[in-house]
Structure formats: C-alpha cells, structure tokens
Amino acid sequence: MRLARAAASALLLASTCRATDLLTPEKLEADIKTQELQRVLWSLNKIANDNGGTRAFGTAGYKASVDFVLERAQTRFGKHFNTYLQPFNHTYEQTKSVSLKGPKGETVHVVSPQYNPGTPLPGGITASLINTPVNDTTGSMCFESQWAGIDATGKLALVKRGTCAVADKVKFAKAKGAVGVLLYNQEPGTDYVAPTLGEANIGLLVPVGIIPLEVANAWIPRLAAGEDLRPTLLVDAIVETRESWNIISETKTGDPNKVVMVGAHLDSVQEGPGINDDGSGTAAILEIMGSVKQYDGYLHRIRFGWWGAEESGLIGSLFYTNSLSELEADKIKYYFNFDMIASPNPMFEISHYINSGIGPELLAEYLESNGKNVTYAEFDGRSDYAGFVELGIPTTGLFTGDGAPWDPCYHQACDSLDNINWEAFTVNSKAAARAVGVLANSLEGVPPRQRSTPFLRGRDAMTHNFRRWKALSEHAHGSVSCSHGKKKLTV
Ligand SMILES: *[C@@H]1O[C@H](CO)[C@@H](O)[C@H](O)[C@H]1NC(C)=O
Ligand SMILES: *[C@@H]1O[C@H](CO)[C@@H](O)[C@H](O)[C@H]1NC(C)=O
Ligand SMILES: *[C@@H]1O[C@H](CO)[C@@H](O)[C@H](O)[C@H]1NC(C)=O
Ligand SMILES: [Zn+2]
Asked: SUPFAM superfamilies of this UniProt entry (predicted)?
C-alpha cells in the first residue's frame, strides 16, 4: 500500500516534468542538428580567420579554440560537467620566411625543411659556395669518407639530395666547417616536397635551403672553372618549446569507474583552419555533449577529450594516455575517436583493431540503415586512438578520408567551411551520438582491456609499431604528409 502510494506519487512527479529525463541513444541521435554543427564550424573558421588562418599547436588560433570549447564545457554546461585543462610542452617550429639570392643578387627558388635552424637576421648568410662530389648509387655526402679532404670552413656547401637523411648530410657539412647547406633536388623542376630535419637534431645543424636541380647544374661548371660564387641564404625560423593543452570534461552523472570516452583533436595544421580536420570531430563531440547535458539516469560516466598538437605527432593524446595510471586506464571502458568525419567526397570508414568489441557494429548499424556503404580499416597509428590502442582499451573510430578524391583540401588553407559534406557530417555525428548513448547505458559487447599474457607478443609488436609511427609522424612543412598522411620524409 505504502509502496503503491510511493509509485503513484512518482508517476505524478514524472507527469509534472520534475523527474529525470532518461538518456537514450535515440534522444542523443535526434538532438544532433546540422544547423548546430554548422554554428560550431563557423566559429572555428572565424577563429582561424582572426588568427592568421590557422588553429595550429603553439599559435593564438589554438588558444582561441581552447577558449571556445571551455566557454561551453566549463561556463555554459558547468552544472553538468567537470572540466580541466591538461597542460603539456612541445617543440614549436615554423619557418616564417626563407629566401635565396644568387651570386648576382637574383632571386632563386628555395624551400625550407622542417626544423630548419634560422640564419642571422636581417642579412642572412652570404658566403662562398663550395661544390661536393655526387654519388647517385650510395647517396651523395652520406658517409664521413665522402667528406674526406673537404674543407668547408666558412662556406656554403652545395650538396645533392637523396638516399640518406638530409640531416645526416648537414651534420657532416657542419663538422667540416660549413655555415650553411644548399641542397639541390635530384629531379628537375620546383614541385618538390620539403623534408624534415627531425626534432631530434635541433641544435646540431646549420641552415639549409633546398634548390632546384637546374640552378645547381648552372653553378657547378662555374665553380669547377674557379669562379667565386657568393649566394645569400636567409632563414627566419622559430624553434622553441611552447605550452599546449588537452581539454578533458566528464559528466557528473554515471559510475566514475566505468567511463565511456569520446575524443577529437582541436588543433589544425599551420597551413589552414582545419575545418574538416578536425573541426568536424570537435564539433560532433561538442554537440554530443550539449545533448548529454539534458539527460540523466545513465549508468556510466561520459568523458570528452579535445586533444592538442595531434598534427605535431599525436602529442596531446599520447601525453594523456601516458599519464594514466593502470587504475585510471582500467576505468576507461571504451574510447571513440572522431577525426575527419565530414570530407567533401566521403567514404564511411570504420577503424578498428582486435579489441574493438561492439563499437564498430554500433556505428555501422546506423550508417548502413542510412544507406551508407561502410568500409573497415585496421588502426594504423595516424590519429589519437594510438595511445588508447597501446593501452589495450577497446576503441573504434570514424574517418571519411584525406587527400584526393575524398578531401583534396587536406592540410591546406582551403580546409574551410566550403570543404564540408554536411549530410555526411550529420549522419556520422548522429552515428557517434547513438553509439555513445548505447554504451552509456550498457557495456554489453565491450571486451575487457586487453593486457593479459596471451596477447603479450602482439602487444609488444604493437608498442614497437607505435614508437615507429610516432617517430614518423612529425609534421612536414608545406607538404601534405602529416599525422593522417604519408610517412614523414627525412630524405
Ligand atoms: C612546461 O615548461 C614550462 C617552462 O619550462 C614549465 O614551467 C612547465 O612546468 C612545463 N609544463 C609541463 C607540463 O611540463
Ligand atoms: C659510389 O660509391 C661506390 C661505393 O663507395 C663506389 O664503388 C662508386 O665508384 C662510387 N661512384 C661514383 C660515381 O663515385
Ligand atoms: C558499395 O560498395 C560496393 C563494394 O565496393 C560497391 O560495389 C557499390 O557500388 C557501393 N555502393 C554505393 C552506393 O556506393
Ligand atoms: Zn586529424
């Protein structure tokens, strides 16, 4: 009797809208609106426009992006979420300008490699050019023996590109006293990709300018004839440690020991505003957050992560996962990664690995019921899932493709509001919201974190691979080879 009365009064409460509004996958899905996603991307695009066209690590555009997310997570939604900034440091590098004047003061086409040391400013380096031998079989000036008998003291060394790392050639040149290196391409033309000198070589090199083969071919006979050619190389570069931040925000509701996590990177590349990469993921999880805050009664805690410095080599997310204790890692029951989910000519690719559990199925189910052709790919270490996979946490992700034909504006200034397929963006965001909603209420089909002995061999191999990927994922300036992209060019 008393019980019945209690139930009746609970019903009464519910009918007067005082009771909790239960979170369901359907509600989260329905709350995702194209117009709201548009608003977020419009804001991120404006942030880039107001800050030199970029939201990259180490720039004012990144800070403004952090403030934008905090304004929601911390200020507007503060009643429902606990939010904190996780600071970390990383090397910022940027060639602000590079120029080369030939012996007669003529302008010569020149490209700067990543992590190029700067020359003195404003004059640059003017010095006599010295030619060095070529060996296209073994590589030119790749071995100490090839430098035997060469004295480059106070000179600019003219060296052919290819075969070994550029940084190796430059180290030898420096050891022989060179004040700079003019590296000429093996192929004619000016359409070449800048390599990286590697973060590990900071402080060990001299400034480098990469010039066309045709220019070197014109200078070499003149040097052989004994002419003194004195070009001027100017590199205005910054290489310094800068602070950056991940934003972590989680619901105040749900079991704190059972966390469903969703993540996207908040930084862009220096070359552009990063609206598809990864404004799309950023906006999707912000909108999921805005939906979640309206509901109650779910079993598991929902945690959101906006990662910094992804484009510099997954720096923020790896800092986060490396900082987790075993205990904290165990609490993360699932991680969803959303990086590039609105490519203008999209594929609908679901990334997975051996311990992805039900996640891919949840995403595929919704996409296929909306007429999408889903494809699958094994995780390859090119986005922020890497650290979670490394920890054996069940993980999946959505990806609509980078580079032509999927996203020809990948890592370029044109990755702006015009670079978005709004229909694909909305469907993917809804698929994401729904999957989060399912796991917020039930972990059925979610495997435990995978760190038991039977998998040890695989895990060791994977850890090794991730170290390799991490090493390869340094950003190449002016090229499209970044975290998502092709392997980092060092040669
Ligand atoms: C980042 O570097 C600054 C300056 O060296 C230092 O004060 C700060 O503690 C560093 N932060 C982290 C997270 O290492
Ligand atoms: C290149 O180096 C190899 C190995 O030292 C040598 O055998 C070959 O003769 C060299 N070629 C030229 C063109 O110097
Ligand atoms: C879906 O993919 C299959 C296999 O690649 C292909 O044959 C089919 O044409 C695709 N359908 C659509 C609608 O893209
Ligand atoms: Zn990305």
From this structure: PA domain, Zn-dependent exopeptidases
